[in-house]
Design brief:
387 residues, alpha+beta, 3 domains, eight-stranded antiparallel β-sheet, 7 helices, 26% helix, (Perigord truffle) hypothetical protein
Length: 387
């Protein structure tokens, strides 16, 4: 069966000197890739990619090069009360997953247009300021004037460069990303029905696993990394993870802004505070409930969840919103705390966010994919490594 996926490949993560570095977060392979099921396009239902893993072996026990990722069942399927498993039989229809639904892609275009307009305004202002400086030089040598002149020339040069880069970026989005079929990046492999009685612990089982399109990811795949830059400064992120300056931090802000996730927090070692990245609300911080056993009314019955409260403050806002489903909730050590699946609305905001415990999600994945490897940094092994 021929894949429907076409160009382009997922974008690379760029250095923070590139004006598109935060804009492109929706189109890179960093965790939190915005997802929309092809079969649910009419509902504009959206979610996020949780974690990647290499399959290792297929269901027949043969070596497999496939790379998979998990999200929520309700993100990838309308029929949440039915089990689904892709058999790979000849002629079987694949259930495809897109990168960015219509609403998320329009948001990306609007963000790019807004930043381009801002940089055009900067360039105009810097040019006018530079013209005034050049027109009125001091009669004597003036170190402050020389420094101002040099700084303003550099500001203008950077603004003009940013305008060119952003203009090209916007054209690229319109020419190669606007067709939804060109944003197909995966198909569903396994998505059991949503349940809260799959085992005696009554955790919410809301999981869907997808097989990634190789050509989309092979070049710019970096494994399970979260891109931290853009919304908060390095100092703000450090403060959120370690609000008590007296405690020596385990967290070290990565120079490339990419925090690698590895391992899970078990039931006996819950962590506070926590963070999650992507889709509707981007990078956010929250305060985890001290107890894992938190009851909420969901899935037509009671279930037990990890509960995360909003951090508080205007800049932080809600920990989650619609579209954030299946975001990986992680701690300062880069360990998976939970997989986000729902929230408790209060007025126009989410008062509490709920997630299935990370250790439980890993149990589900390893039961179905016993050879799953979450640690790989490349999509494919080098020949020397494979040998």
């Amino acid at each position: 069966m021929e894949s429907l996926a076409g160009p382009p490949e997922m974008m690379p993560v760029t250095r923070d000197t590139n004006p598109t570095h935060w804009l492109r977060r929706a189109l890179t392979a960093a965790l939190g890739v915005p997802l929309a099921a092809q079969d649910m396009a009419d509902t504009d239902s959206q979610g996020s990619l949780g974690l990647y893993f290499h399959r290792g072996k297929d269901r027949q026990g043969n070596k497999s090069k496939d790379v998979l990722a998990f999200t929520n069942k309700h993100v990838v399927s309308k029929k949440t009360n039915e089990d689904y498993k892709y058999s790979g039989r000849q002629g079987e229809r694949k259930q495809y997953i897109r990168n960015c639904g219509h609403r998320r892609f329009e948001r990306l275009l609007n963000e790019a247009r807004a930043l381009l307009a801002e940089k055009l305004g900067d360039a105009k202002l810097f040019a006018e300021q530079l013209a005034e400086l050049v027109a009125d030089p001091p009669e004597e040598e003036d170190a402050d004037y020389n420094r101002d002149l040099k700084d303003k020339e550099q500001q203008l040069q950077k603004a003009e460069s940013d305008v060119g880069i952003l203009d090209d970026f916007l054209k690229l989005l319109k020419s190669t990303w606007s067709d939804a079929f060109d944003r197909i990046i995966a198909w569903i492999d396994w998505a059991p029905k949503i349940a809260n009685d799959a085992d005696p612990r009554r955790y919410s089982r809301d999981i869907g696993v997808m097989t990634l399109e190789r050509d989309k990811f092979v070049k710019n795949f970096k494994g399970n990394v979260v891109y931290l830059a853009g919304k908060f400064t390095r100092a703000e992120i450090n403060t959120c993870f370690y609000p008590n300056a007296a405690n020596p931090p385990v967290f070290q802000y990565p120079k490339d802004h990419l925090l690698r996730l590895s391992g899970v927090v078990d039931a006996a070692a819950l962590s506070n505070p926590v963070a999650k990245e992507r889709q509707a609300t981007d990078l956010t911080f929250g305060r985890q409930s001290e107890l894992e056993a938190y009851t909420c009314r969901d899935l037509e019955g009671s279930s037990w969840e990890v509960a995360v409260l909003n951090w508080g403050g205007n800049k932080h806002g809600n920990f989650s919103a619609k579209g954030d489903s299946s975001s990986a909730i992680f701690n300062a050590e880069g360990k998976l705390v939970a997989l986000l699946h729902s929230g408790m609305p209060r007025g126009m905001s989410n008062h509490v966010t709920f997630g299935a415990p990370g250790h439980y999600v890993m149990e589900l994945v390893l039961e179905e994919y016993p050879d799953a490897d979450f640690a790989r940094l490349k999509f494919e092994e080098d020949e020397a490594t494979a040998a």
